[in-house]
Design goal:
By secondary structure, the chain is of the alpha/beta class. The protein has a single domain, classed as TIM Barrel (Alpha-Beta Barrel). It is built from 9 helices and 8 strands. The protein has helices at about 10-15, 50-60, 80-95, 125-130, 130-145, 155-165, 175, 180-190, 195-205; strands spanning about 1-5, 20-25, 40, 70, 100-105, 120, 145-150, 170. An 8-stranded parallel beta barrel has the order 1-2-3-4-5-6-7-8, surrounded by 6 helices. The chain is globular and about 45 Å long.
Amino acid sequence: MNILLDASPARLQATTHYPCVVGQLLTPLTNYRNWGGVFAMDNGGFSGFDGAAFRRLLARQETHKAECLFVAAPDIVGNARRTCEAFSHWYDEIHTWPLALVAQDGLENLPIPWHLIKAIFIGGSTEWKVSNAAADIVRAAKIMDKYVHVGRVNEVRRFRHFARLGADTCDGSGLSRFSDEKLGALSVGVTEGEHMPLFQKAVNATGANP
């Protein structure tokens, strides 16, 4: 599993020699400039969704759409049913982007619009995120060739859990604050000897050297 950092372009450029760091996560909250390589966009809902700020973020990144892995559609933290309603409400406005449905508590009991999404973004409460229900959604997504991103991964144990499930990328405020030494240790300890298809994609897209 690889990492998308919610960080400045300078920070990203300084960490791309670590195999686990492959791109940038843009949010309406931190509002960093696009670093020019592989990236994805979150909607900022965990801290309080701002529709106008989300629209501005999408508009600024329109010329970079080809490098975008996914856009997390607006969601309601901890409530899958309301999140699916929000997804339906926003779909017509944002469907030209590669969309991710944010998986929230209870999604295991609802139909997932797989045909409308490119990715699943594992959100939800801490308890639900590491539940068997969330793990099954990851497994189903991979069976259907969907991209899987995991939010709020701030410890190695959780990183390893989702890496074993086959998730593609993760983010976390703790990861963004990791020192270069810690990122290097994570790369060696978690990714050594593993196939890293997204890393190869990132290299090809950005021209960066590992």
